[in-house]
Amino acid sequence: MDKLGIGVIGLGIMGENYVQVYQQHPHTEVRAVVNRSEERLHRVGDKYNIPANNRYTDHRKMLERNDIDAVCVATPDFAHTQFVLDALSAGKHVLVEKPMTISTKEADDILRAVKDTGLKLQVAYSHRWLPAYYEARQRIQNGEIGKPLVGYARKNDTIWVATEMINWTAQTAPTFFLNSHDVDLMRWYFDSEAVEARAYGVKEVLVKRGIDTYDMVQGQVKFASGAIATFESGWIYPNTFPTIVDSFVEVIGSAGHIHLDRKCESLEISTEKAFTYPKTFLYGQIFGKIHGAFKLCLDAFVDCILEDKEPVTNAYAGRQVTAILEAMIKSANQGGEIVKIQ
After folding, report:
1. Which of 43, 106, 183, 276 is surrounded by the most beta carbons within 10 Å?
2. CB 108 within 8 A of CB 342
3. Which of 105, 85, 76, 151 is nearest to 323 (CA)?
4. What's the gap between Cα 266 and its chain centre?
5. According to the model, what pLDDT value does residue 1 have?
6. Distance (Å, rounded) from C-alpha 289 to C-alpha 294?
């Protein structure tokens, strides 16, 4: 069979990962890459042997190509929408980094475009492909913990992420950058839509470093089923913390409890310099081949195109998650006022 032609927009950490995965996939070929910085564009292009004439700084030129079947949008979260809409308008299927957008209005525009074009859109909520998280969903669906009543999820990064890893921290918030995965999971676990949110945020550490965004946000969301969930996110953990991100999820039901802790992913390493918990579940390599939930997520997108299936993390799911995230930030900005979610 002919391979699907893939174009990748945005060649940061995640964009480069997309290139790696789809270069190894048996049914895809990375045929073009796009990046605003020419230096980064050519560094990644050279590393993965992308021909010079297949490298662009203007995504619209790439979208004119008939040999591009699907586009991966891996730009910063606040900059997804126009790339997604342009790709759909050009007749390309879209895989977009999480969250789909940070604006519900923009998410509605994307959802409308997907319906109008009939193309596939998947949001890269890769945590659904983590075996433990998937197993938790199966146990909940089977009724093993009764009716889900309460959820709690946190993701806290070390301050290195906010001050060094990304340079657009002030244009987003930890809620969007981190809790988007957790909100997607909780919707999935509760099998219910959110109706209102309340949140509080703290600005102290990063503002003093010239970065105007929240250090941490804690929010509570009520769902139509009556269940409630608390979400915590932040990026001011000290860099001495043994892992880049502390990730924890729990669901309490009427007849049981599920506890998911990814702070340590089975591996602990201590040296004379540090004690660390390396991340191994989402993304890694075994004998030169990419493995992990991130790869499975990207594989699923290809399957949806080839088999004409609806993605499990489709545009509607992406829209609903964005609505919850935006409501939490709006509430935090308003000092904790309750915000209704549509």
Report:
1. 183
2. no
3. 105
4. 23
5. 60
6. 13
Query: Which residue would you say has higher pLDDT here, 54 or 265?
Result: 54
Length of the chain: 342
Distance of CA 8 to the CA centre of its chain: 16
Query: What is the rounded CA–CA span in Å between residue 259 and residue 106?
Result: 34
Same domain for 150 and 114, yes or no, is no
Do 120 and 199 have their domain in common? no
pLDDT tens digits, 308-327: 999 999 999 999 999 999 99
Rounded to whole angstroms, the Cα distance separating 22 from 4 reads 10
pTM over cut 0.90? yes
| 302: pLDDT strictly greater than 80 | yes
Considering the domain architecture, whether residues 241 and 307 belong to the same structural domain is answered as no
Q: Do 74 and 171 share a domain, yes or no?
A: no
Could you give the C-alpha distances from 139 to 144, 190, 329, in angstroms and in order? 6, 12, 31
Distance separating alpha carbons of residues 259 and 66, to the nearest angstrom: 47
